[in-house]
Specification:
Helices cover about 35% and strands about 5% of the residues. A hairpin with a 5-residue loop joins strand 3 (about 140) and strand 4. The protein has 27 helices and 10 strands. The termini are far apart. The protein folds into 4 domains: about 60-135, no CATH class; about 160-305 and about 340-400, no CATH class; about 405-450, no CATH class; about 465-630 and about 665-705, no CATH class. Helix 4 (about 85-95) crosses helix 5 (about 95-100), helix 13 packs antiparallel against helix 14 (about 345-360) and helix 26 (about 670-685) packs antiparallel against helix 27 (about 685-705). It is mainly alpha-helical. It has helices at about 5-25, 60, 70-75, 85-95, 95-100, 125, 130-135, 150-160, 165-175, 195-200, 230-235, 245, 280-300, 345-360, 360-380, 405-410, 425, 430-435, 450-455, 485-490, 500-505, 525-530, 560-565, 575-580, 605-625, 670-685, 685-705; strands at about 85, 115, 140, 145, 310, 320, 470, 475, 635, 645.
Length: about 725
């Protein structure tokens, strides 16, 4: 019988193990060292009781409104059934909803997908997470989106309101209303909601207020470099105003309440018309709001036939003034007495009224935008009042340099960039770049000029030093010893000159139309070029004619800053009338004693003489264009490009003729030069005082060159 193979394998394995053990056995003659015993391990310490470690800034956060678990903003839904926060509120009234909105919970960003549970506040995790770290854009109720924001996008996601002019218009459309003054029970009040700071800050860009058609509005409020964002001005945890930041520029600001007294050099007009131009912008807004409320109550009684009252705390804020006493009593400020006689016109005004109140810091976030909304609302209601509310002393916008709503700054909004050829004078940062680099590139549109436009620093408000300025003609000029005034010359010089006009007409027959020639526009307010006369050659100077140079007035009243307030831009008229014994500068005529315009009046001011010659020149332009070029011409002071074809040859510009497609194109050298000078005289409204003799020479020569009758005229 054969032994199985596995038995042999087992026997072999046993033998092998025996050999291994034998080889490991020590020889009898060797001494084995005694093993060292292991040291005793120390006893494990008793585990310590864990304690909460305070997060950074926890104390500041805990005292803030964001952490107030008892606030109405977080408990409003506690008695609802079910007890949850609806999607349209959850974004800003619960941490869960905010995280849902920004997509931090893995859901789609920029929407809340479900109702949120009650009982949360704005916590560390709400603002500090991977999603907020990447958040840099904000979508507003109007549909507008602001991008490239950085960390302040977190703040603005909620501090933007929940309505805009879009929702106001939608409610009017839904009610089927086309009559602005029709009362409808289908129309209810549209509430912007609370603390919509971004609305005032971004102005027209986000359309948070009701912006009236055809009215210009300020864009984003530019403060100063380094103090522009939410967290530049507010502590991000306590939410308190960083007063120490304010006081570096605004003296006397030691508390948040003191900020109400701030008004700076860019705000020197009387917005509310109360005669006080030193009160803080907060009080200007307050005054303008009171004026609007007066107009709203008058309109409600006269037009809607239902007296109105307002409560800042009782929902829905506007109520029937049942006893028509102009005061809202406690018994009237109840929901069943809510105002229901809304018209589209009244709703728009009420929306703006509420917008100005529900951001208590609106005066600082973008006070000028709010003031524009209040003014326009009052003005609109006034159109239907038997006795309009007096706005005669109120001012809607700032002086030109700081009027962020003006075309000079808003022209490029749709393009998104101001071209390099325009930024020097039409952006807040353009001039400093030009002074440093000698040139400009395109920049984003700005909301008027800034302190930093002219001031090289904001510690002692030193100005940039400019000794000479190069004019479009290539000539250099400047006020000796007055570098502040030379700053003005950088922009108030026009964009064309004798040099550029000569380039267009050189070698051309004077009375032959130049093919594809456009009108050359000097641009606006070229006061510096006027003042320096032939030393700058801003006008078109005719060959073989002599022209006066810089107008030297009298010491201390010879430069831009001598005669104009550097910020308000107003003429220091009292100084003029003191020497010239006139009521206003337009009546001045000193050392110019002839009847220059041939109207027989040698007592009218030089302004009158200039206006007279302008009228004669315009008539000569029309005669020449019609008789010589067989192409009648007409002019508009405001419609670009100013000169148009007078299609019906009636010597006036009709509404249907003032459009770009009908622009004048039959330019001969003779017509182009005279039209250029006419436009120059129009676009420097102070030419008569900046250099009256120079302007009279130019107008006379233009009339003469066109073949106009100068026999009764006098050339200085």
């Amino acid at each position: 019988m054969k032994t199985p193979v596995k038995h042999f394998l087992f026997i072999a394995l046993v033998l092998a193990l025996g050999l291994i053990l034998a080889s490991c056995t020590p020889k009898p003659t060797e001494t084995v060292a005694e093993a060292t015993p292991c040291p005793e391990c120390p006893a494990c310490p008793e585990p310590e009781t864990c304690t909460d470690t305070a997060a950074p800034n926890q104390e500041e956060w805990a005292a803030s409104a964001h952490a107030d678990a008892a606030a109405e903003a977080f408990v409003h839904w506690n008695e609802e059934d079910p007890k949850e926060i609806p999607v349209y509120c959850a974004k800003c009234h619960s941490s869960t909803g905010f995280l849902d909105y920004i997509g931090a919970d893995g859901s789609t960003a920029f929407q809340v997908d479900a109702n949120s549970p009650i009982g949360t506040v704005i916590t560390c995790d709400t603002c500090h997470n991977d999603a907020t770290a990447e958040l840099s854009s904000v979508k507003f109720p109007s549909g507008a989106e602001v991008t490239g924001l950085g960390s302040e996008a977190v703040c603005m996601t909620c501090h933007q309101g929940s309505a805009s002019m879009v929702q106001v218009d939608e409610s009017i459309t839904a009610a089927g209303l086309t009559d602005e003054d029709a009362v409808s029970d289908k129309l209810g009040f549209t509430n912007i909601h609370y603390y919509a700071a971004a609305v005032a800050r971004y102005g027209k860009e986000v359309m948070g207020g009701y912006q009236y058609p055809g009215k210009p509005y300020d864009a984003m409020f530019d403060h100063v470099v380094g103090v522009q964002t939410c967290t530049d001005c507010h502590d991000s945890h306590s939410l308190e105003l960083k007063v120490d930041t304010c006081v570096s520029c605004h003296e006397g600001v030691t508390t948040a309440e003191d900020a109400r007294n701030i008004r700076f050099a860019a705000s020197l007009v009387d917005y509310d018309g109360d005669g006080d131009t030193e009160e803080g912008i907060y009080y200007e807004v307050e005054g303008a709001r009171e004026t609007l409320y007066t107009a709203m109550q008058a309109y409600a009684s006269e037009v809607a036939k239902a007296p109105l009252g307002y409560s800042q705390t009782a929902y829905p804020y506007f109520f029937m003034d049942t006893n028509a006493d102009g005061v809202l009593d406690e018994t009237e400020a109840v929901y069943p007495n809510a105002y229901k006689s809304w018209t589209p016109r009244l709703l728009k005004a009420a929306y703006n009224f509420q917008t100005s109140l529900k951001d208590p810091g609106a005066y600082a976030h973008g006070g000028k935008y709010i003031l524009e909304l209040l003014y326009d609302s009052t003005e609109d209601l006034n159109t239907k009042l038997a006795t309009p509310v007096d706005l005669s002393m109120a001012v809607r916008a700032d002086a030109g340099h700081f009027d962020g709503s003006a075309e000079a700054f808003r022209h490029w909004d749709e393009d998104g960039a101001v071209p390099g050829s325009c930024v020097k004078c039409h952006t807040g940062e353009g001039l400093p770049v030009f002074l440093k680099e000698g040139t400009n590139i395109s920049m984003e549109p700005s909301n008027g000029l800034l302190c930093e436009t002219c001031h090289s620093n904001l510690e002692d408000y030193a100005r940039y030093e400019v000794e000479l300025v190069t004019f479009p003609s290539g000539l250099k000029a400047g006020f000796e010893g007055d570098m502040d005034a030379n700053l003005c010359l950088n922009c108030h010089q026009g964009q064309q000159s004798t040099t550029s006009v000569n380039r267009a007409i050189s070698g051309k027959d004077p009375d032959t139309v130049i093919e594809k020639q456009s009108f050359l526009n000097v641009h606006y307010f070229a006061a510096g070029a006027t003042l320096f006369g032939t030393d700058a050659k801003g006008v078109y100077e005719y060959p073989d004619k002599e022209y006066v140079g810089q107008f030297a007035h009298v010491p201390n009243y010879a430069t831009c800053s001598d005669c104009h307030d550097a910020h308000a831009l107003e003429v220091q008229q009292a100084a003029c009338t003191a020497c010239h014994s006139v009521d206003e500068p337009g009546q001045i005529r000193k050392n110019l004693t002839e009847d220059y315009d041939g109207d027989g009046d040698v007592t009218e001011g030089i302004q009158g003489e200039v206006e007279g010659l302008k009228t004669i020149l315009y008539a000569a332009l029309q005669v020449y264009a019609k008789d010589v070029l067989q192409s009648p011409i007409a002019y508009s002071t405001s419609a670009y490009p100013y000169f148009f074809i007078d299609t019906n040859a009636n010597d006036s510009l009709d509404a249907d003729e003032a459009n770009y497609g009908n622009r004048y194109v039959s330019w001969s050298p003779r017509l182009l030069t005279a039209a250029y000078n006419y436009q120059y005289a129009q676009k420097d409204p102070g030419a008569y005082v900046h250099n009256g003799a120079y302007m009279l020479q130019v107008l006379y020569d233009s009339i003469e060159d066109l073949g106009g009758d100068v026999t009764t005229l006098v050339r200085p």
